[in-house]
Amino acid sequence: MSLRNDTDTIDRPGDEEIAELLLQVGSRRISRREVLRRGIALGLTVPAIGWLLAACGGDDDDTAPTATAGSGEVPTPTTAPGETPTAGTPQGGGRLTIIVTGNIPDLDPQSAYDSTASSVFFGTYEMLVRLKGSDTFEYEPMLASEWSSDPEYKEWTFTIPDGVLFHDGTTCDAEAVAQSFRRFHKMQLGPTDVIRRFVSDPDTQIVAVDKNTVKFTLDTGNDIFLAAMASQYGPLVVSPAAVEANKTPDDEFAHEWFRENVVGTGPYKLREYIQNDRIVIERFEDFHGGWDGPHFDEIVFRIVPESATRRQLIEAGEADALTQSLTVRDVTSIEQAGKLNVLRYDSTHVAWTVLNCGAKIKDPKARQGFSYAFPYEDVRQGVYEGLIIRTSGPCTPTTRGYDPNGFIYDTDLDKAKQLLEEAGWDFNEKLEYWLSSSSDNDISVAQLFQANLQKIGITMDIVQKEEGALTDFNYSETPPEERPHFVSWGWWPDYNDAYNEIYPNFASASWTPNGSNAGFYKNDRLDEILDTVAPGVPAEEYTTLMAEANNILTEQDPAAIYWGSVNWYTILQPNIKGFEHNPIYLNTYNVYRMYREG
Question: Are 491 and 371 in contact (CB under 8 A)?
Fold first, then answer.
């Protein structure tokens, strides 16, 4: 087994870390599972880990771990000081503590393309409209109070109410909204296709008709435009005054400033961001939605990279919420204990392994071979215990345009070896697989894949990266020659549309940093299909073309190894109310509507 931390991102373990592990074992402050995980990460030998497990005591896999504050800090209270509230009564004020797994490398909502950032943006920025409840095609007002289109869906108008302010105190009117969307279009970063799919000239096609009305004139009529405007990625409105005040000759959009600062119209404003510790947002008293009814005063996003610590915090009541960030076994154990609310729900998320198509695995036959070498059922039933289901390609059955008859790989090591040999693969080449150090599930998946490759004579190193650093790297300008062979990744669409799942990840125009195509995949026929579908086509043609695109991405010219569709969960303290889950808005919290019940 070759599992190591990358020294560019995580310091190489030394005597102090080993001593700390011994201290925790001696004081029984650590579970056997955590001893095993950390022992491997520290590079200890199997006999040494065995000695530590013996010292740790009996098997504790099915018992709840003892809660600790972590990092030597005083536990953060989850309610404001004061009198004990009456049971069953909605309580205004106080603090909501949400656990997240890593840093956020980019706080610019028009370039950031990760769900941890979106969890913060949902409290600090606003789209024009948002999806209603758990629906994926019904909308409700967010920043805009009204909207309409012409019968051809080419001209769209949105009404911005009077009295809306940005966090910097400047007015958000129709012109401010138009300027914000023009910035989003022109920066061409991250989720840029959310607007560029529909508009080619932002200066003439995104305009303020009057102080309350902003109009979008699309290149061609397309009814999916409203879904795009409700995306959690990209179409969030930023303060033009803040852009103007902080731009530089080399950065006309003040992007570098917005990477570390937040100026939106949302109900909460940024108070502090301490790397590797927490992000705190607090009430924006001038929020145009008002503060009637129960609302939290502040939201703390606590950064906790270790899965075992996340479980300790949520079970001890030192945190109020977490989503999709524990081992499946821990989730089942918590659910059986019955002390916390565990909500399970469908998603539009597919987990996959990015293949380095641009440099290191260029031959489609080699990519097919690696796809056959992947341990699908061990991952779905072993690691995820049924939370991942067997589906075809990069879309889920929940997603508009999914092909229910699409090709699906099964593990076949003989076929894998045969295809790799036919591709002329050098079996002596050592491979690298990168993943987030905060995901025990991803580590387990990579280890299973590593074991399968060993059976056919291939060696693979597993490299752990801090989550924020991995995200930043994936969206960087680093060429494919300097990237690993494999990266644990996955995706769900910005809005409910197979085109939008595929384009950001696999179109050649989406090579990072212009999108999320971190494997530098290119297929001319796929690009042609996406160009055809983008402006809108009849439903029957759309279904046919998306099925062809799926077959290209799976059977013909695989761009990734697709694990399957992921079912999601959120764990809440039983007195936290108002949370709404949505298959599109994954890993986010509608914090303005959430409250604590006494």
Answer: no
β-bridge mates for residue 140, sequence order:
130
* Calpha distance 359→484 (Å, rounded): 10
Task: Dump pLDDT digits (tens) for 221-260.
Answer: 999 999 999 999 999 999 999 999 999 999 999 999 999 9
Domain boundaries, the chain: 3-56, 70-102+267-334+576-598, 125-258, 350-566
Euclidean distance between CA atoms 112 and 12, whole angstroms: 29
CATH says 70-102+267-334+576-598 is which class? alpha beta
82 falls in which pLDDT band (50, 70, 90)? very low
Instruction: Out of 56-70, 324-338, 463-477, 497-511, pick the least confident.
Output: 56-70
Q: Which residue has the tokens 């009456």?
A: 86
* CB distance 509 to 454 below 8 Å: no
Tokens linked to 228: 């795009």
List pLDDT tens digits, range 137-154: 999 999 999 999 999 999
- Token representation of residue 277: 């510790």
Q: What is the dihedral of CA 84, 90, 94, 96, to 10 degrees?
A: 120
- CATH number of the domain located at residue range(s) 350-566 in this protein: 3.10.105.10
Amino acid at 269: K
Q: Do domains 70-102+267-334+576-598 and 350-566 have the same CATH topology?
A: no
- Burial of 430: CB neighbours in 10 Å, binned 0-12, 13-18, 19+: exposed
Helix (H, G, I), strand (E, B) or coil at 255: helix
Q: What is the 3-state secondary structure (H, E, C) of 315-334?
A: HHCCCCEEECCCCHHHHHHH
Share of the chain above pLDDT 70, in %: 85
Tell me if the bond preceding 240 is cis, omega within 30° of 0.
no
Give the residue among 163, 180, 176 at the shortest CA–CA distance from 286.
Answer: 163
47 φ, ψ (degrees, to nearest 5): -60, -40
Give residue 18's pLDDT. 54
Q: How confident is the model at residue 52 (pLDDT cuts 50, 70, 90)?
A: low
CA dist 392 → 353, 424, 497, 550, 585 (Å): 14, 27, 16, 8, 22
The secondary structure of 330-394 as a DSSP string is: HHHHHHHHTSSEEEEE--S-EEEEEE-TTTTS--HHHHHHHHHHS-HHIIIIIISTTSEE---TT
Q: Name the pLDDT band for 22 (thresholds 50, 70, 90).
A: low
**Interatomic CA distance for residues 494 and 232, integer angstroms:** 7
* pTM for this model (two decimals): 0.80
155 bridge partner residues: 217
End-to-end CA gap in the chain: 50
Q: Specify the CATH number of the domain 125-258.
A: 3.40.190.10
